[in-house]
């Protein structure tokens, strides 16, 4: 499908109309490290109290402006001092210039000082944090810790309060460093033999122990020849997310003010069925699972420290899609097979945050799978992949090395929760060091919880983009530093850096689609073009696109294009930065896996530092249908006289027209063409005719609708005539004329629109 230059210009003109005179958005400003704090408020002291009162009155009226910066009054600090809020954050240098301007402009000002941001300086008092939890600390060079995920500075900004994380795993245990942060839960193990609790699914998510007696467990190379002790894997994962912190006990959790919903889906020998995992994902995010009561604590993050071999099954992809549509970030481990090119499932499902593992030094762990689809790396501990050499020496060659493992929670018992360790000397709660991509994934889930707690308006795609965009580069000399194909993801998790992205000034953005309608066949891919404009003065960071409704079930992808040639650039589903005042073009692909009646799909155009683009039917939504057999699929594009996407009618009784070009890329069929004003009731009469494609002349007298037979590959053209019966305001995102192409069953098989107004 090709798009002409004039039609590209039409899309840009439509976007420009929507962006006209944008309101300046004030960025949400979470607390930042002192060196990077922008100045958002100023404290002004006047030489006399009367001047202060006068300045406050002017500011409250919205008229106080010093230099080029408008100031909003916040409060009186004392008789002669006022606190004002800036309309945009300023660097230290820009603030210095502003302060000088203010004093020069008003001799009654004595001082202009920044309102300094202060913060708590949290160091957890949990005794095992300092000696063991390298994985939460700032990356440092003296001791070789390049792999720390930088949570410690992040805790001064966010601790995950109010966010629910679902841990789909072995279930929950009673542990004094975890129990207070557990809520709800459910057991999704449907096979009673695997469940070990004597039944199938129930509301008790307790981990019964996943031990295997001799011969019970298939280890991949045959049955186990010795006892396979219980791992208490789910507790270890949950503790990394939300171990109770600051209680002087045990260790710290990454998002320790969040809550964990334990979801049991694995049992005996640590195994389970992927279909149970799919149900657990859907339920965790608040979806419906037959025969299971609704989750009263829907999760914004779903952690999957588990996986199997093979591609992502369609039923698992549907579960992931459903969870994401409900706003949940789905995080999964890539697997522990040591594969340099293949990751497991569900990590390889579209839209999943797939996490590989690095060790203390930031080297990809020797067990950690990497490959296409990997999103990011996080601390998992273990030995190095890169051999010792002139530029690299492995500091964790074996399990006896310091900082070899990731430390979290568990039990001593080899079998059930009340059993003892191998020597029979200890039972009950403990802490333990483990390695694996299972340990890496919950670090990412915890960081996602910190982001969501800091800004609850973040969509799941923006959370994923923030984590990916803020990742640190792999250290020189490590395995992933030498890989150029993205197999290790965007870099190493950095929780504090991800939070810092939330302070970027917000940019106004707008988006449009061409065409506005597609009729797909189930299993085939329908594509459309999209354009996203950054109308602000700063760069729009990590912009991505997602389908914003669970009505669409199937695969969706986006990829940047060269606007001059329509050639694909970049890689699929890779977020992109957009320069100030620039436009980025995309191709969007939709592959439905089931039938769908014509549905207007809202799309979410997300940039980390931009408010969500408002959904405008006929501008940035796609009317998509999916049938089991081919049907007409009319690609329709409009062109107005000024090539600006606007029909301007002269006066309240004037007339105007626009042209519509089409191409039927689907099956032959009978099509009826008509025009309407959508949900807006506008005083305008609309008529349609088919035209001679060479001259543009009507082939017959214009009517309210035109019916014709359209062959496969046919390219009929049309004209639409509009006559006003009153005033039509200029509101291009609302006041529009839609042209719809319906088949013999009245299903819409094509659509386009233009803005309309009277002059």
In terms of per-residue confidence, which ranges show pLDDT below 50 for 5 or more consecutive residues? 1-36
Structural class: alpha+beta
Number-wise, the strands total: 32
Largest sheet: 7 strands, parallel
Termini distance?
Answer: 36 Å
Strand arrangement in the largest pleated sheet: 7-8-6-9-10-11-12
What spatial form do the alpha-carbon principal axes imply? globular
Mean pLDDT: 88
Rg calc: 30 Å
Q: What is the overall number of helices?
A: 12
Provide a descriptive summary of the structure in words:
This protein is of the alpha+beta class and 759 residues long. It is built from twelve helices and 32 strands. 16% of the residues lie in helices and 28% in strands. Helix 9 (314-325) links the parallel strand 9 and strand 10. Helix 7 (233-242) runs parallel beside helix 10 and helix 10 (437-454) crosses helix 11 (460-469). The relative contact order is 0.10. Residues 1-36 have low confidence and may be disordered.
Strands, helices and their partners?
Layout: H1 5-19, E1 39-46, H2 49-60, E2 65-66, E3 69-78, E4 81-90, H3 92-105, E5 109-114, H4 129-132, H5 151-154, E6 164-169, E7 186-187, H6 192-195, H7 233-242, E8 259-264, H8 274-284, E9 301-304, H9 314-325, E10 329-333, E11 353-358, E12 376-379, E13 406-411, E14 429-434, H10 437-454, H11 460-469, H12 495-500, E15 509-514, E16 517-521, E17 526-534, E18 540-547, E19 554-561, E20 576-578, E21 583-592, E22 596-606, E23 621-627, E24 634-639, E25 646-649, E26 655-664, E27 669-676, E28 684-691, E29 705-710, E30 717-724, E31 736-742, E32 748-758
Parallel strand pairs: 6-8, 6-9, 7-8, 9-10, 10-11, 11-12, 16-23, 25-32
Antiparallel strand pairs: 1-4, 1-5, 2-3, 3-4, 13-14, 15-17, 17-21, 18-20, 18-22, 19-21, 22-23, 24-26, 26-30, 27-29, 27-31, 28-30, 31-32
Helix pairs in contact: 7-10, 8-9, 10-11
